[in-house]
Amino acid sequence: MTPTPQDIQAAMAVHPxxxxxxxxxxxxxxxLWIGFxxxxxxxxxDFNFAPERILHGMQRMGRILSFMFPPHIWExxxxxxxxxTALGETVAMAFLGTVLGLIVAFPLSxxxxxxxxxxxxxRQTTRRGYDIIRAxxxxxxxxxxxxxFGLGPLAGVLAxxxxxxxxxxxxxxxxxxxxxxxxxxxVVASGGSRFQSILFGIMPQVLPVHLSIVLYNxxxxxxxxxxxxxxxxxxxxxxxxxxxxxxxxxxxxxIIIMIVAMVYLxxxxxxxxxxxxxxHAEMAK
Length: 285
What we know:
Layout (H helix, E strand, L loop, with lengths): L4 H10 L8 H24 L4 H18 L8 H35 L8 H16 L2 H12 L3 H25 L4 H8 L4 H40 L2 H10 L3 H29 L8
């Protein structure tokens, strides 16, 4: 039955909030929008987003891009070898940092999992430790380690490893908590110990998840290693920074192309590994 205008007016009188916001709600919405737009405009003003400055920057960017073409082609094998060595150093830095972080984070994740560590204060202390480590950006860690250990890949490896300890520990412990209890109950019902229930009831469920997390973070760390190289941690980022400082823009463009190709190749290989090892894994129900 189609409601008549009288029915609609009666319904509006009985349930006014179902048809329009109250003045208080309208005031809050308007205040929020004014606050949002005011904050946005203040940020533009404070960071000097002036049209003249943007136009001047775009003109300079155009000149820089014009210097990049055509890309530089090194003529000797020794020059190419220097670039490939820097690329390999970047990948090795990401690999070693990821593995070191994994080695430390794996046992720590059990201390932060609620279904494994029943000691409240120890579990909460461990979790807050994860948060403290994750609060430090990897770039800040790299700058600290460069001051402590000097320029080179060692600082980058340590920065990635420490950062991954916090990330892996948190993600691994959450994966442990999200496992099904049925396999654990089956092991216990068969007379298994607590260690055996974790080994045969929980680990088969989380290992594919752990492997997926490790592969994804390794991809991310390859990209991070390039940035760390720019601040002095070695690798292709260091070479890129050196060429930018020397205004060798054609070489910069070639290095950027090779970085993109390297990241694409790592992503592709990682996807293949995930599909082969994880794609066919059956999670416990």
